[in-house]
Amino acid sequence: MHRILTTHTGSLIRPAELEALLIRREQGQPVDEEQFAAGLRAGVAAVMTEQADTGLDILNDGEFDKNSWITYIYYRVTGIETREYAFDPERVLEAIPPTFDRTRTGNVREELNRFVPFYARDWSSGVGTGWVCTGPISYNPAAIDAHLADVRTAAERLSQAADAPGRPVFITAMSPGSLHWIRNEYYESEEDFVFAFADALRQEYLRIIEAGFLLQVDDAVLWRQRATITMRGGTQRDYDAWADLRVAALNRALEGVPTDRIRYHVCSGSGHEAKVVDAGLREVLPAILKVRWGALLIEQANAGHEHEWAAWQDFALPEGRMLVPGVVTHHTHVVEHPDLVTQRLVRLAGVVGPDRIMAGTDCGFAQTAGKSRVQLWTQWAKLRALVTGAAQASAELWPH
């Protein structure tokens, strides 16, 4: 097939009613589970149809079953407890990696206060939640099994309605490296903790694969942690040691899964941030390349990282693997012109080859319910621009 396929990184803006139910569940409030299940089924079917109508080749469920890309897993495993606290600017660093540009002010309070209005939006109830491991971690597959059945039904109906072969569907799951957010109070060592979580996540990964879907592992921490370690006075060697443990745990969780069924998404942080202290792609690529993935979804559309397409001139894309650069970003409300999308794809194709790239997004448009990065209309406009730009790039790369 001489055509650049199109996809995205996962989270899409939830319908208002479903969003409200997800937030209520996250806050521990009672929810009518039958109403939630019905709303979820309807929402997934609708968002998959919308993706197909937009022209995307590889679809997903919009992550509609998750309040957030990370906290969902806490309800599927044992051994994790919550501790709540009122929103306080001084405690922001306990929930968000300290990738603020403190070098400019030398004053943490001043820097926090400058960005508090942005981070305050993440506290939908005015309450922050801390997560702590207080017992052995084990996985309960009930929620994922029920959801995968719903997604399969939606995919089959979509294929029948379109009278065309079914589009590939991917399902996202968090990585063991995302344990950065959980405090360990049970396992004797950090290694024991990370690998115990990896063994639990492996059950989720295998269920996604066995259900016939592509697995996308979301790892928003592996890249971002490089900047966090720097801010704490650490070195590249410190980061390498931190990353090697997480990569080893992830690879163990992926053992036996064909690499062509694995998508791996990394980013340097999904928020509307200044990006002035992000680590460079070259600093984290050695760790990323050690992971067993078949397709790598990576930031390359926002102004903080677009220039890093050139890193692939120095790092060889391993044989048999695909690169899925962000060609539209969730970071701004500006809708990218399709010609810009085309230019980004053609430029990268000149480095790694046109048959080794797909068109994607920097990150998701709504990492949590109630926290959309752009307006709903803008989300779909960006995805339409992605599809149009990829078609133009295909015509340019394969003129005959």
Descriptive report:
The chain is an alpha/beta fold and 400 residues long. It has a single domain, classed as TIM Barrel (Alpha-Beta Barrel), CATH 3.20.20.210. It is 43% helix and 12% strand. A 7-stranded parallel sheet has the order 1-4-6-7-8-9-10. The chain has a 3-stranded mixed sheet with strand order 2-3-5, with no helix packed on it. Helix 1 packs across helix 2, helix 2 packs across helix 6 and helix 11 packs across helix 12. The longest helix has 22 residues. It is globular, with a radius of gyration of 20 Å.
Strand content: 5-15%
Classified by CATH, the class is Alpha Beta
Gyration radius (Cα, Å) is 20 Å
Task: Give the total of domains.
Answer: 1
State the helix count: 12
Number of E-type strands:
10
| Mean pLDDT figure | 88
Q: What series of H and E elements makes up the topology?
A: HHEEHHHEHEEHEHHEHEEHEH
Low-confidence residue ranges: 100-109, 121-125
CATH architecture: Alpha-Beta Barrel
CATH domain fold name: TIM Barrel
State the strand order across the main sheet. Answer: 1-4-6-7-8-9-10
